[in-house]
């Protein structure tokens, strides 16, 4: 990056550090922060969608929907999220490949699970063997987003369900007395008021979501945990920037990064609460 | 291999008894259920030790934060901020690297009359190192819950205690502590469940599984990789976790009953999975 970095072994001190921290590999690490933020951004819409679907299913007048909603939220809540993070990427991957296998090569007969093997035809592989590296990474990232959505959708469904139930009955009765239909009551009165009750729970979930992002590492995605392990490991004299095992400093930096992220989020949420509860009779 | 054979080979595999090698081929359902169940002993151990010690430390932290002098309050606040604000996953990695850096032989603690040598090599092992991290983590979360409860003890209760001439430890033991516990209990039972679930992270973070003696999830993912079929081992471990979660719910429900036994109208602490997320 800088000109004086041409021969890193000849410089030392701050100069060395500034060169060290701007190597292409470090750039990749800073870039992977974007991966974390991208995951957060990509996961929120499907999480909210599943959350609403789950919450509405639990309030549904049709009993099987209620059972599905309750089953979904209870199972995800009763099992550690990491189990889902290990399970869903493989399960989804296999499900997609089995489907493609059935569609693309119907002529191949025989079981897919053969003893300790999982066999689908070449054309059914996802993504295709010869596709470029970024396709593989994008596929992995998509699976990660879906997994996050399923797990956090259940938590969100719980929060939204509670919030919908917390809106005072009188408000809804008043709406009906004004001649609003069910639909109008829901969209004009129930939903807008629900947010105030949902916000504390949702902000908490956001914090949990932030703190779950390092699990991307377990899904084989090159996120900041991967780079911290990679770059922090001992580098011998064969490298341009030899150093002993510095992983502890890299993980300390990650801790600071996450502390900043949660601290900023907390500040933002405090403001949002103050704004959302204006004019509402909620206990402080 | 019959189920009885699997049992004798793998029931205590996770703590070093039985078959040395993990099942490689012809993995039966029994193998999976028994070995994963064997691994769950680790999860229960981590959770029980961390929660027991964490409870005591969290109580001290909460009192330091609410009533303590500044030199105790500020470090306690900082401790809670750090452990609640960063992911447990990173805490494991960081702690492991930290424990590895400690001098291999041990740290000498001068006591004046004698020198105590604390062996540090055990800290790099999961049974102690991971337990320490889980203990610190749950202390921070529980301290936050207890702090909130301490702050919302009805003023009248404290004044009544003063009027009865109670002070110091007596007031604490009879009034402040039981009331704090009663108010905090619903959230605290959630924290216990979360902590129990977090124990599954241990062998996927920095801590290595020595001789492949590890927790249930480690074996579940081993089976998923060995058989290329995630649809058997993961549901098995899910059932184990749901079972133990229900045990925790039951136990905390009993304690809650006792804590609330004097209340005129027993406020039914209706425990709904998923209500009151605190983590």
Report what the structure shows.
Chain A has a single domain (3-78, 146-276), classed as MetI-like (MetI-like fold, Orthogonal Bundle). Chain A has 9 helices and 2 strands. In chain A, 29% of the residues are buried. A two-stranded antiparallel sheet of chain A has the order 1-2. Chain A is mainly α. The N and C termini of chain A lie far apart (52 Å). Helices cover 69% and strands 1% of the residues of chain A. Chain B has helices at 3-10, 29-66, 70-85, 88-101, 126-151, 155-163, 168-198, 216-227, 233-259; strands at residues 107-110, 115-118. Chain B is mainly α and 279 residues long. Chain B contains 9 helices and 2 strands; from the N terminus they run ααααββααααα. Chain B has one domain (3-259): MetI-like (MetI-like fold). In chain B, α2 packs antiparallel against α7 (168-198), α5 packs across α7 and α8 packs antiparallel against α9 (233-259). In chain B, a hairpin with a 4-residue loop joins β1 and β2 (115-118). Chain B has a two-stranded antiparallel ribbon with strand order 1-2. The chains are: A mainly alpha (284), B mainly alpha (279). The interface between A and B is large, with 52 and 45 residues.
């Amino acid at each position: 990056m800088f000109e004086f970095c041409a021969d890193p072994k000849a410089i030392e001190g701050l100069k060395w550090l500034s060169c060290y921290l701007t190597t292409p590999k470090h750039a990749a690490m800073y870039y992977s922060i974007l991966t974390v933020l991208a995951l957060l951004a990509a996961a929120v819409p499907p999480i909210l969608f599943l959350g609403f679907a789950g919450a509405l299913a639990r309030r549904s007048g049709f009993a099987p929907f209620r059972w599905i909603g309750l089953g979904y939220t209870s199972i995800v809540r009763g099992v550690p999220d990491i189990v889902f993070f290990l399970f869903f990427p493989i399960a989804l991957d296999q499900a997609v490949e089995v489907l493609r296998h059935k569609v693309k090569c119907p002529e191949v007969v025989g079981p897919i699970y053969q003893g300790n093997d999982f066999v689908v035809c070449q054309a059914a592989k996802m993504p295709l063997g010869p596709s470029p590296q970024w396709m593989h990474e994008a596929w992995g990232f998509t699976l990660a987003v879906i997994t996050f959505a399923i797990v956090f959708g259940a938590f969100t469904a719980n929060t939204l369900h509670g919030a919908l139930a917390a809106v005072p009955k009188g408000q809804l009765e008043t709406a009906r007395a004004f001649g609003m239909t069910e639909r109008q009551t829901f969209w004009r009165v129930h939903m807008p008021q629900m947010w105030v009750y949902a916000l504390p729970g949702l902000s908490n979930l956001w914090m949990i979501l932030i703190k779950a992002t390092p699990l991307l590492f377990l899904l084989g995605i090159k996120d900041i945990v991967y780079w911290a392990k990679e770059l922090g490991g001992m580098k011998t004299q064969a490298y341009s920037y030899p150093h002993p095992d510095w992983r502890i400093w890299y993980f300390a930096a990650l801790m600071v990064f996450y502390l900043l992220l949660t601290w900023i989020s907390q500040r933002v949420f405090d403001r949002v609460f103050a704004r959302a509860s204006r004019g509402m009779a909620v206990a402080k | 291999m019959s189920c009885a054979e699997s049992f004798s080979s793998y029931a205590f595999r996770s703590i070093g008894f039985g078959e040395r090698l993990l099942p490689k081929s012809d993995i039966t359902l029994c193998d999976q259920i028994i070995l994963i169940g064997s691994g769950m002993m680790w999860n229960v151990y981590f959770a029980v030790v961390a929660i027991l010690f964490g409870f005591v430390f969290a109580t001290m932290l909460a009192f330091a934060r609410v009533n303590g002098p500044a030199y105790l309050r500020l470090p306690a606040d900082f401790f809670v901020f750090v452990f609640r604000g960063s992911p447990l996953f990173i805490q494991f990695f960081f702690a492991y690297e930290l424990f590895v850096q400690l001098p291999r032989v041990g740290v000498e603690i001068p006591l004046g009359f004698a020198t105590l040598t604390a062996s540090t090599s055990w800290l790099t092992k999961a049974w102690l190192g991971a337990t320490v991290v889980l203990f610190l983590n749950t202390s921070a979360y529980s301290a936050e819950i207890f702090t909130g409860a301490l702050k919302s003890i009805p003023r009248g209760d404290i004044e009544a205690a003063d009027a009865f001439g109670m002070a110091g430890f007596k007031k604490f033991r009879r009034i402040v502590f039981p009331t704090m516990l009663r108010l905090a209990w619903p959230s605290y039972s959630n924290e216990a469940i979360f902590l129990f679930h977090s124990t599954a992270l241990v062998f996927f973070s920095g801590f290595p599984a020595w001789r492949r003696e590890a927790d249930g999830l480690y074996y579940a993912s081993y089976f998923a990789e060995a058989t290329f079929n995630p649809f058997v081992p993961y549901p098995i471990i899910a059932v184990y976790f749901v079972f133990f979660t229900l045990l925790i719910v039951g136990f905390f429900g009993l304690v809650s009953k006792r804590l609330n036994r004097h209340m005129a109208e027993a406020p039914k602490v209706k425990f709904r999975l998923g209500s009151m997320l605190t983590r």
